[in-house]
Amino acid sequence: MKLKFSKMHGTGNDYVYVNGFTEKLDNPSETAIKLSDRHFAIGSDGLIIVAPSEVADVRMIMFNSDGSEGKMCGNGIRCVAKYAYDHNLTDKKEMTIETASGIKTIKVTVDENNKVEYAEVNMGKAILKPADIPMKTEGDSFIAKEVTVNGTTYVATAVSMGNPHMVIFTHGIDELNLDEIGPYFENQELFPEKVNTEFVEVIDDHNFKMRVYERGTGETMSCGTGTCAVTVAAVLNGFAKYGEELNIHIRGGELKDTYYEDGTVIMKGKATHVFDGEIEI
Fold first, then answer.
1. Tens digit of each residue's pLDDT (9 = 90 or more) over 87-100
2. ∠ CA 145-146-148 to the nearest 5 degrees?
């Protein structure tokens, strides 16, 4: 069977995108594993299907590179908005996208060729209650608390943006070997559904540098929900203020995020089309 696809990325967080209106996949989990291989296939952080929705303009179905189904991806959803608009699945510049963590609203900005260049996503409200993240701990929040991982103690803040994140403010993040230490964080026993981990350096009150180790994928160039979690954690830890746009610098570029006092997080960034293709699966 031949599968038509598009390769797209948001600040280097790359996925294979498939038109779920026209293409049918019997085993998308297995397909995600195969297509994500950077040596023997297309190469990506996973597979995203842009499908019909009964409750929104389109539906986003995502699978990580290990075949596990993802709930939400901030970089991915910007590209879904671009895919939907550029492929005439919707003509709206403010659209709704159904995800496994709820319906998100996205505003797109187009270039002179009427192709989407930027997308602004209302990511909804950050979840801080451990039981809802979920975490195996009590209380109303988990902010600047000690966590021991593989024998080393870190100060961490836990946030869910539809998926669980552990944010650690530290120094020397460029020297960290995430391939080595990342799995210990991903499988930290506090998080029954595993966790995405962000390692962050504070540059100033509007600029933060981040590396991320994603559950089910490993280190990636960028993570949209991760930059949102970092923005929330920066405010909660006193490094930044509510309502102010922060520049989160990741390996794949930069995202601009704002955390408001009502708990809402807004994320802005590019959505980039790389190429289209067809592959035998």
1. 999 999 999 999 99
2. 145
3 state SS for 131-162:
HHCCCCCCCCCCCCEEEEECCEEEEEEEEECC
DSSP notation for 166-202: EEEE-S-GGG--HHHHHHHHHT-TT-TT--EEEEEEE
Q: Note whether 180 and 199 are within 8 A (CB).
A: no
Structure tokens, 222? 């960028």
Catalytic residues: 73, 223
Reduced DSSP (H G I as helix, E B as strand, rest coil) percent helix, strand, coil of the chain, to 5: 20, 45, 40
Give 61-80 pLDDT, tens digit per residue: 999 999 999 999 999 999 99
pTM: 0.87
Structural domains in the chain plus CATH codes: 1-121+268-278 (3.10.310.10), 126-261 (3.10.310.10)
